[in-house]
Amino acid sequence: MAEVTKLIHKYLRHDKKFPHVWCPGCGNGILLGALIRAIDRTGFEKDDIVLVSGIGCAGRLPVYVDFNTLHTTHGRALTFATGVKLANPRLQVIVIMGDGDAMAIGGNHFIHAARRNLNLTAIIVNNNIYGMTGGQYSPTTPYGALATTAVYRNIEHAFSIAELAVTAGASLVARGTVYHATMLDRLIEQAIRKRGFSVLEVISHCHTQFGRRNKMGGAVDMLRWQKENAVRVEKAAEMSEEEMAGKFTIGVLVDRDLPIYTEEYRKIREAARRRLGAVK
């Protein structure tokens, strides 16, 4: 308990930004705890961290932490983060986005950030819905699910965030859940430490907008669903397609070393300066 209190006073704006706006039982609170525990283990100073977010429930997270923070416009968190990283590559840039924020209006930015392999960390909270703005279906809403903009059922097929990140070229791609909180700590820490563009998809729950509408129960019921349907990557490799039906993998999907954009960009700048010096 003393350690928890220490982290709260060290990393949270506890004296001016609380109570938070999240619904009771929201997975974002679990993510917030995992994030500050992971950052504490990395040893980075608070001034080394820049936490960037867009709009939505997950986008509120930087408001509550005592780092350098940037609350940006909808879908543009990665573009702002790119500018920060290019301006000062020394900073540890972490981007928090929701599934609608990252995959809909921000989808093209996400693909190209992964392709460039920028040296930053993208954490995408996937709760299958637009939670803050009224329960509209998002690019990760399952086929057949209900939403305020799909009152008869959603007829679009969902993006797989992690697999899209792998294909687009991210260096590290992982998936966790807010139920597996200890594992989530480790995945966030690994993503922050990774050199290159690291993506962590966090399966969370929105019992207010998604669970209630789709008769999935409350927060505890939705956490139980995560427990029962998440399969660690190592175990999934030993299971048949039939055994994996309706389930999803958690853990590190890809960990590879690729040229890092900020380092390649620095080489281009140095080459241009040498050439301009020679011309003069």
TrEMBL record:
InterPro entries linked: 2-oxoacid:Fd_oxidoreductase, THDP-binding, TPP_enzyme_TPP-bd
BP GO terms, sorted: cellular respiration; small molecule metabolic process
Molecular-function annotations in GO: oxidoreductase activity, acting on the aldehyde or oxo group of donors, iron-sulfur protein as acceptor; thiamine pyrophosphate binding
Pfam family, one: TPP_enzyme_C
Membrane-spanning parts: none
Gene3D superfamilies: 3.40.50.970
Keywords (A to Z) from UniProt: Oxidoreductase
Protein name (Swiss-Prot/TrEMBL): 2-oxoglutarate ferredoxin oxidoreductase beta subunit
Originating species: Desulfosoma caldarium
Lineage, highest ranks first: Bacteria, Pseudomonadati, Thermodesulfobacteriota, Syntrophobacteria, Syntrophobacterales
